[in-house]
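Entry 14. Ran structure prediction on the chain below.
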Amino acid sequence: MKEEFEIRKEYEKIQKKYKIPEFEELNTEFELESLEKKEFLVRAIRRRMNDKVIFFCRIIENIIYPNGQSQIGTYEAGFFSDEKKNELSVIHKKLMIYERQSLLLDITPNDNGDAEYIKALTLEWKNFKNELKETVLIMENSWKNTVEEKEERYFG
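Output, structure tokens:
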């Protein structure tokens, strides 16, 4: 018979051992409750966090390095000033450091390294979130402007 996995109970064990942040804080940001097994839990948490890092790296890349084949990326990138793109480039580099640290931990598994990654990214995540929120709002507004322009031109 398979033992039932309770993420919160298992998390408490590793939280005490590695002194990582509270479950609720990480769960809110990185959706830990959907993890399904306790084996390699510290590694699984680090990977879940890294998935979000990678996701936002790709969004930023589409802005600072627009691909001419992507009309959406090229369109949205046009709404960012050179100054804002430079700011995003700095954030991108910081996120890429985390992405590469995670990659190294996948090559050389180490629970202590995973725990250090979790702690460090958690500390910086609030700053990243603020910048990313501002970025996403610019992207969203670029589309609102398009809709409003089309509505103003319609004389039906």
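The chain has a mean pLDDT of 92. Will compare against last week's run tomorrow.
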